[in-house]
Amino acid sequence: LDEFEQRKQGDSLGVAIPHQDVLIVADLTGKTGAQLLARLTYDFASKGQVPISVLPFFWENGELTPFLAV
After folding, report:
1. CA 4/CA 25 separation, integer angstroms
2. What is the rounded CA–CA span in Å between residue 19 and residue 42?
3. Residues 40, 43, 35, 5: what is their CA dihedral angle, to the nearest 10 degrees?
4. Taking all residues of the chain, what is their mean pLDDT, rounded to a whole number?
5. Averaged over 46-51, what is the pLDDT?
6. Is 12:20 a contact under the CB 8 Å cutoff?
7. Residues 13, 42, 38, 66, Cα dihedral to 10°
8. What is the pLDDT at residue 68?
9. 3-state secondary structure the chain
10. pLDDT value at position 69?
11. Which pLDDT band holds residue 62 (cuts at 50, 70, 90)?
């Protein structure tokens, strides 16, 4: 994730693990990017056989921080 952080062009790096077959790493720009990641994460989690988390995370300073997009 640190490597993705160095390459990002947007405001922040988003990470999500909605179910057992999906890992999402997203280069987010603004509030719209965060909202889209949250929507995508929820959609994938609701359709997977083994959901893991409907919450997306920001990758900041080497830590994952969960967020809710409103």
Report:
1. 8
2. 10
3. -30
4. 92
5. 88
6. no
7. -60
8. 83
9. CHHHHHHCCCCEEEEECCECCCCEEEEECHHHHHHHHHHHHHHHHHHCCCECCCCCEEEECCEEEECCCC
10. 76
11. very high
